[in-house]
Design goal:
single chain; about 130 residues; alpha+beta; three-stranded antiparallel β-sheet; 1 helix; 6 strands; elongated
Length: about 130
C-alpha cells in the first residue's frame, strides 16, 4: 500500500496564506521593536541628559534644632538650581525641609548646609535636585 501525498507541488500555486501572514508579522515586529528602542532612548536622554544638577549627602550631624548636612553637588558649568533636603524625627515625622540654591561656574561643589528643624532630626535625606 502506498499513501498519497497531500502536499501541493512547490511553486505551482504561489505562496500560502500562512507564509504571507508570517511576513506581515515579521514586519510588524520589526516596526514595534524600532519604536520601543526609540522610546526608551528618548526617555533615557530626557532623564539623564537633561539632569544638569545631581548631588549626594556625604554625612550629616544632628543637634537639638538643626541638622548640618554635607552635600556634594555636581552640575554643568554655569548651571544653577537647587537641591531639596529634609529631616525626619525618630518616629518618622518630618521635622524640617529646605531648598538650597547652587550656582556659579564650578562643576563640583562641596558645601555644608544647615537645615533648621522643629525638633531633633535623626536623618538627612536628599529629595532631589532641579535646574532653574
Amino acid at each position: 500500500m502506498s499513501t498519497a501525498s497531500t502536499r501541493l507541488p512547490e511553486g505551482r500555486y504561489g505562496r500560502s496564506s500562512d507564509e504571507r501572514a508570517d511576513g506581515r508579522l515579521r514586519v510588524a515586529a520589526i516596526v514595534l521593536g524600532v519604536a520601543l528602542v526609540a522610546l526608551i532612548g528618548y526617555f533615557a536622554y530626557y532623564y539623564v541628559g537633561q539632569n544638569k544638577i545631581s548631588a549626594e549627602v556625604i554625612e550629616f550631624e544632628q543637634s537639638k534644632n538643626s541638622v548640618q548636612v554635607h552635600l556634594e553637588v555636581r552640575k554643568d558649568a554655569g548651571a544653577s538650581g537647587y537641591c531639596t533636603v529634609r529631616s525626619q524625627a525618630e518616629n518618622g515625622a518630618e521635622v524640617g525641609r529646605a531648598d538650597f540654591h547652587f550656582d556659579g561656574d564650578a562643576t563640583r561643589i562641596d558645601r555644608v548646609v544647615t537645615l533648621r528643624t522643629t525638633s531633633p532630626g535623626t536623618t538627612a535625606e536628599l529629595l532631589g535636585c532641579h535646574a532653574d
